[in-house]
């Protein structure tokens, strides 16, 4: 995952430093969807606008989707940002725990012999790949 530096000018235009081109809010959303992160600053790089731009992307996407009902949005405003941050942290923590549990279950179900056999197969495949690359 790469972090892309985006400069935001006083006229609100945004410039992708890496690709030397101006970008739109939609372009930023695509960059994020592709797996990269963004860092949006003023032209000098001193003032950070990243959180503001991410909120703006989310708002623009919610305008395009009927999934966010007005009543849900009212509740979000009532709960405030810290509640949403906590919910996000809880979700992330839960997902990490779930993945860790699944990995443990998979490895637990393997006997030492099974694991050694899989390891040998991986080594054999690596050798074959090396031969093909040569």
Structural overview:
There is one protein chain. The chain is an alpha+beta fold and 134 residues long. The protein has 4 helices and 4 strands, in the order E-E-E-H-E-H-H-H. 63% of the residues lie in helices and 13% in strands. A 4-stranded mixed β-sheet has the order 3-2-1-4. Strand 1 and strand 2 form a beta hairpin. Helix 1 crosses helix 2.
What are the segments in which pLDDT stays under 50 over at least 5 consecutive residues? none
One letter per element, helices H and strands E, the order comes to EEEHEHHH
Helix vs. strand class: alpha+beta
Helicity range:
55-70%
How are the strands of the largest sheet arranged?
3-2-1-4
Largest sheet: 4 strands, mixed
Main features:
134 residues, 2 domains, 13% strand
Write a brief caption for the model.
With about 130 residues, the protein is α+β, with helices and mostly antiparallel strands. The protein has four helices and four strands, in the order βββαβααα. It folds into two domains: about 1-65, no CATH class; about 70-134, no CATH class.
Question: What is this structure's SSE topology?
Answer:
Layout: E1 3-8, E2 14-16, E3 21-23, H1 25-33, E4 37-42, H2 50-64, H3 70-108, H4 112-133
Parallel strand pairs: 1-4
Antiparallel strand pairs: 1-2, 2-3
Helix pairs in contact: 1-2
């Amino acid at each position: 995952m790469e972090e892309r530096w985006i400069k935001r000018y006083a006229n609100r235009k945004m410039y992708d430093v890496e690709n030397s081109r101006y970008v739109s809010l939609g372009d930023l959303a695509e960059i994020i969807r592709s797996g990269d992160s963004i860092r949006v600053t003023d032209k000098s790089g001193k003032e950070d606008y990243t959180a503001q731009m991410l909120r703006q992307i989310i708002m623009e996407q919610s305008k395009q989707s009927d999934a966010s009902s007005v009543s849900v949005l009212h509740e979000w405003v009532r709960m405030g940002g810290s509640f949403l941050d906590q919910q996000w942290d809880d979700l992330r923590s839960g997902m990490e725990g779930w993945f860790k549990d699944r990995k443990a279950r998979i490895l637990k179900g393997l006997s030492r012999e099974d694991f050694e056999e899989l390891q040998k197969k991986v080594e054999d495949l690596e050798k074959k790949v090396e031969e093909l690359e040569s």
